[in-house]
Amino acid sequence: MAVNYGSKRTVVGAHYGMRDWLSQRVTGALMALFTIVLLVQVIFSSGPIGYDKWAGIFASQWMKVLTFAVIASLLYHVWVGMRDVWMDYVQPVGLRLVLQIFTIVWLVGCAGWAIQVLWRI
After folding, report:
1. Has domain 18-120 been given CATH number 1.20.1300.10?
2. Which residues contact 8 (CB under 8 A, 6 or more apart)?
3. Are 70 and 31 in contact (CB under 8 A)?
4. H or E element, residue 6
5. Alpha-carbon dihedral of residues 77, 80, 82, 87, nearest 10 degrees?
6. What is the pTM of this model?
7. Where are the alpha helices (DSSP H) in the chain?
8. What is the spatial distance between Cα 72 and Cα 55, in angstroms, rounded to a whole number?
């Protein structure tokens, strides 16, 4: 005779857990590194900080690539956070779906705008 201690647990739902926790930390660390690199460039630049100085900082290819990576990281960071907020605090499924779709559309629009600004410099 088999003894059943407790019930079998069925895991349902998003169960993103560790992957989302780790992605939030990695994207946050990348954004912090970018901030430090940008601050170092601004602090050690000579003369007043104007448009020409900012354009010069972002003109090099490696800075554009790093900025693009940070923009992508920021968008994913925001998506994970907002998705979790919508899933945790918005109970009606239809409203949650509308808010998630709005968030995706907003983030894609922000990405397009940021890339346009970045590659125009």
Report:
1. yes
2. none
3. yes
4. none
5. -170
6. 0.78
7. 17-43, 51-59, 61-89, 93-120
8. 21
Nearest to 81 by CA among 14, 32, 20: 20
Q: What is the dihedral of CA 118, 46, 36, 107, to 10 degrees?
A: -20
Crossing angle for the helix pair 51-59 and 17-43, to the nearest 10 degrees: 130
| Residue whose C-alpha is closest to residue 24's, from 67, 66, 68, 83 | 83
For the beta carbon of residue 77, count every other beta carbon within 10 angstroms: 19
Model pLDDT for residues 27-36, shown as the tens digit of each residue: 999 999 999 9
CA triplet 84, 80, 14: central angle to 5 degrees? 55
d(C-alpha 13, C-alpha 29), whole Å: 28
pLDDT in tens, 69-102: 999 999 999 999 999 999 999 999 999 999 999 9
